[in-house]
Amino acid sequence: MLVPSHWVLDFVVHRPDLPLTPWGDERYGLGLWNLIPATLAVELVLFAAGVWIYVTATNARDRVGSLGLAGLLVFMLVGYAGAALGPPPPTASAISWADMGQWLVVLWAAYIDQHRSQR
After folding, report:
1. How far is Cα 59 from Cα 23, in angstroms, rounded to an integer?
2. Pairing relation of β-strands 18-19 and 27-28?
3. Phi then psi for 38, rounded to 5 degrees?
4. pLDDT in tens, 24-55
5. Do 22 and 29 meet the contact criterion of CB atoms below 8 Å apart?
6. Which is more confident, 1 or 99?
7. Pairwise CA distance, residues 1 & 12, whole Å
8. How far apart (Å, rounded) are the C-alpha atoms in residues 67 and 112?
9. Alpha-carbon span 59 to 17, nearest angstrom
10. CB atoms closer than 10 angstroms to residue 68
11. Which of 39-55 are b and which e, b meaning 16 or more Cβ less than 10 Å from the residue's Cβ?
12. Are the C-beta atoms of residues 33 and 53 closer than 8 Å to each other?
């Protein structure tokens, strides 16, 4: 289910560059990326919805679970703003290092999640 659902979400934002099958020549996409304000609005609404679902489904057990989550969300929003509104990365190496650094965010989120419990 992960791949088809991701393809549908990509279909909305990508230019017509997505194949439907590995052997097909047709490419699909609605091109929301061509409309920067609309892209930002859709992505921020999806982010807010995900945060809302998580926050309403869990309770903070301590300060790490509350302030740590707040810090992570601020960090993610600042990083998103930098990526969306800042200049492009200077090199392919910079992109790869930034991508590898995202694992630190995953570890940070996992640590915070250990300090939250299900409602």
Report:
1. 47
2. antiparallel
3. -65, -40
4. 899 999 999 899 899 899 889 999 999 999 99
5. no
6. 99
7. 17
8. 9
9. 42
10. 20
11. beeeeeeeeeeeeeeee
12. no
Strand partners, 59: 117
Torsions phi, psi for 84 (to 5 deg): -80, -35
Give the pLDDT confidence of 53-78 residue by residue, as tens digits: 999 999 999 999 999 999 999 999 99
- As given in the structure block, the two tokens for residue 78 are 């600042």
Consecutive H or E run containing 5: helix 2-13
Residue 13 DSSP SS3 = helix
Q: What are 1's two structure tokens?
A: 């289910």
The domain spans of the chain are 1-34, 47-118
Give dist(CA 98, CA 80) in Å, integer: 12
Instruction: Tell whether pTM > 0.85.
Output: no
80: its two tokens? 């998103």
List the one residue out of 61, 62, 80, 82 whose CA is nearest residue 72: 80
pLDDT single digits (tens) 72-119: 999 999 999 998 889 999 999 999 999 999 999 999 999 999 999 999
